[in-house]
Amino acid sequence: MNKIYNGIMGLVVGDALGVPVEFKERDSYEVTDMIGFGTYNQKPGTWSDDSSMTLATLESMGRIGSFDTADIMNNFYQWLQNDKFTPWGKVFDVGGATRRAIVRYANGTDPVKCGGKTRMDNGNGALMRILPVAMLAEADPHDKMVTVKSVAGLTHNHPISHIACFIYAFMVENLMNNVDKRSALSNAIQVVGGLYGETEMWQEFRFLAEIDKFDRDEIKSSGYVVDTLEAAVWCFLNSCSYRECVLLAVNLGSDTDTVAAVAGGLAGIYYGCGSESGIPDEWIAQIPRKDWIKGFSLNAEFGDNYTTYTESVEQGLKEPCFFVFCINPTNRVFLGKRYFKTNQMCIQYFPVDKDRKKEECNTVSERLFGCLEYITVSGDLVRGTKMNAEMVDGVLNFFVNYDFYVYKKEDTVPMEELSESVSVKG
Predict the structure, then answer these.
(1) Is omega for the bond preceding 87 within 30 degrees of 0, making it cis?
(2) Mean pLDDT across 159-163
(3) What's the CA angle centered on 317, arms 314 and 321, to 5 degrees?
(4) Are 208 and 167 in contact (CB under 8 A)?
(5) Nearest to 103 by CA among 77, 132, 130, 64
(6) What span, in angstroms and rounded, lies between the C-alpha atoms of 30 and 52?
(7) For residue range 226-277, what is the model confidence (pLDDT) as tens digits?
(8) What are 168-217's pLDDT values in tens digits?
(9) N or C: which end of the chain has fewer CB within 10 A?
(10) Which residues neighbour 188 within 8 Å (Cβ) at sequence distance 6 or greater?
């Protein structure tokens, strides 16, 4: 799957791991796996406000195709007031500064004026949700900082919160570009320090460059945005896998869900999903609405300007668009009631730029290699194989195989049934 999905799922899983032990004192417990109940009496895999506000931001960007602060703030309102963007249809956790900002918006305040501006308004409520902006905002450093500041400031509009979000955003950008961990941190500090290094607020971040050398007892994991950033980066730099990173974070105590979410976003991008070092499949399997989350990630990657067709259209294809179909599917008995199903999928892409078809198709092809690596089949991740692409008559033809086992249900009617479900989104 692509790095946008990896980062978002990394954040959500980290959040869910931390929810049951939020506010607990360090070393009064030990988390070694996904658990439930605890602080909020929620099911295993349940994520909280960190993920809800992140997904609210991502949904807005995917739907509109840009960062619209008014629309993002309205999504926040829909979350708090109407329980949108939640795992089970009910808000159960919200920070004080965030709540106050949304209430101001509900009372008619301009969205860009809702965020608290005092030094006491430096909780981690902006940092915890800034990941989509970090991954998708402009590459130009100045433009990226303008966007990050405007989105962070919806709820937390003090320079300390801005700086924390800037550093995190540039770390994320470096990791998206395959820069190693420590260089990602040092590069981010160099960029942000170049603008804020002489300010009083910068002193709050004076330990960050060497944070990985600190002992565990020296790491604070409170809701103060600087503590959260330092703790998350410390966990990321002092671990060798996603699992190790987020378990370090969760076991620090205090604001466990947010520290693990912020660290998990970094580790998700860096390690990816599955494999020995990536986000464990068994943890992802416990996340509610995981397919919905995946859909947001794909929309953010390609936007809503792309239409996906799964049936033939006689005329009137609206470019840019995808046409998806299965070529010669096979179904053979493997053992008993188990069948092995092979599906060779063809995803055709019809470009919009008639003068630069090849360049446009090559760009889309590279993105498809990432975002179609995994799909979900009946709740399980299936990896695509034999990926290849070719351009014929100005149309991209992208091929990928999804092979998996299915189990025939017991007969309930005279005719035998084979139940299966396959979905591919581009």
Answers:
(1) no
(2) 98
(3) 135
(4) yes
(5) 77
(6) 26
(7) 999 999 999 999 999 999 999 999 999 999 999 999 999 999 999 999 889 9
(8) 999 999 999 999 999 999 999 999 999 999 999 999 999 999 999 999 99
(9) C
(10) 166, 167, 168, 169, 170, 171, 173, 174
Other CB atoms within a 10 A radius of the CB of residue 182 amount to 12
C-beta separation of 257 from 38 below 8 A: no
Amino acid of residue 399:
F
Res. 33: pLDDT tops 80: yes
Q: Predicted confidence band at 22 (pLDDT cuts at 50, 70, 90)?
A: very high
Model pTM? 0.73
Q: What is the pLDDT of residue 282?
A: 96
Is 348 within 8 Å of 397 (Cβ atoms)? yes
What does the block give as tokens for 205?
A: 């971040």
List Cβ neighbours of 140 (8 Å cut-off, separation of 6 or more).
none
Long-range contact set of residues 80-85: C-beta below 8 Å, sequence gap at least 24: 81/106, 84/56, 85/52, 85/53, 85/55, 85/56, 85/59
Residues 35-63 have pLDDT tens digits of: 999 999 999 999 999 999 999 999 999 88
Tokens 């990394």 identify what position?
10
Please give the structure tokens belonging to residue 118: 């005092």
pLDDT in tens, 323-332: 887 776 777 7
Q: Which of 24, 44, 101, 92 is nearest to 69 (CA)?
A: 101
